[in-house]
Write a structure and sequence with these properties.
Structural Genomics Hypothetical 15.5 Kd Protein In mrcA-pckA Intergenic Region, Chain A, elongated, 9-stranded mixed beta sheet, 22% helix, Alpha-Beta Plaits, 6 helices, alpha+beta, 244 residues
Length: 244
């Protein structure tokens, strides 16, 4: 079950805010009855009409995108900065990112118009493993990395256990490349975790999302997920079988 305004927005008819206005104005019917209450939940078998016209659901589409740095993980931006959907001019469906990567972070991001799929992947209990490669300031000691592996307390709570691996160190520049695997999605989580142990992130990239990688893609490029990949992701969201 999903909120009515969300279903209308995901159909590609209009934005969620406009859908809310239409509901309040009495322009939306569910199973023949006018619904004016925001937050009303509907299922796949409910008949929805907007301005007396039956709502048709878009065919679901799924994309893997290599987000460059300096791009917003959103469909619009009030400061007119570049957003991820700017890289999909040929796509007519109303796609949006699954979760987000912050402005200065590059790497693997999924986009879809399938709300159920996106919600399953982003649910705190179901989120799949995400592998990041971070260039950090300083040379982290093993004991500090173990703090991340055990879970570290941030201002919005303690993180789940992570997995870390030092890939390289540069004693001359006093920096290191560290791979870190997490399955949560707190805002700027990886950066804040390294800040907490005194090693600020200089550069960050998400290399993997579950079993998916950026293989064959350059920054700004994308590809459609195969039906098998979509099926695998749905399974991972439920079972968490890829967890380290």
């Amino acid at each position: 079950m999903e909120r009515l305004q969300k279903v209308i927005a995901h159909s590609g008819l209009t934005s969620r805010r406009k859908a809310e206005e239409m509901i309040i104005e009495g322009k939306v019917k569910v199973n023949g009855k006018i619904v004016k209450e925001l937050g009303t939940k509907v299922g796949p078998n409910d008949k929805i009409e907007v301005n007396e016209v039956p709502l048709t659901k878009e065919v679901p589409v799924y994309f893997l995108f290599y987000k460059p740095r300096g791009v917003i993980s959103a469909v619009t931006d009030d400061k007119n900065r570049k957003v991820v959907t700017d890289f999909f001019p040929e796509v007519t469906e109303r796609i949006y990112p699954v979760g987000r990567l912050d402005y200065d972070t590059s790497g693997l991001l999924l986009l879809t118009n399938d709300g159920e799929f996106a919600n399953a992947l982003m649910h705190p209990k179901h989120e799949v493993d995400k592998v990041y490669v971070a260039k950090v300031k300083g040379l982290p000691l093993r004991e500090n990395l173990r703090k991340l592996e055990r879970g570290i307390t941030l201002e919005d709570g303690k993180t789940a256990p992570a997995k870390t691996k030092v890939l390289s160190i540069d004693k001359k520049k006093q920096s290191a490349i560290v791979e870190i695997t997490i399955h949560e999605g707190k805002n700027r989580q990886v950066r804040r975790m390294f800040d907490a142990i005194g090693h600020p992130v200089l550069k960050l990239k998400r290399e993997k999302y579950g079993f998916l990688t950026l293989h064959g893609l350059s920054a700004g490029e994308s590809r459609e997920l195969t039906p098998h990949e979509v099926k695998q992701l749905r399974a991972l969201a439920v079972t968490g079988e890829n967890r380290f």
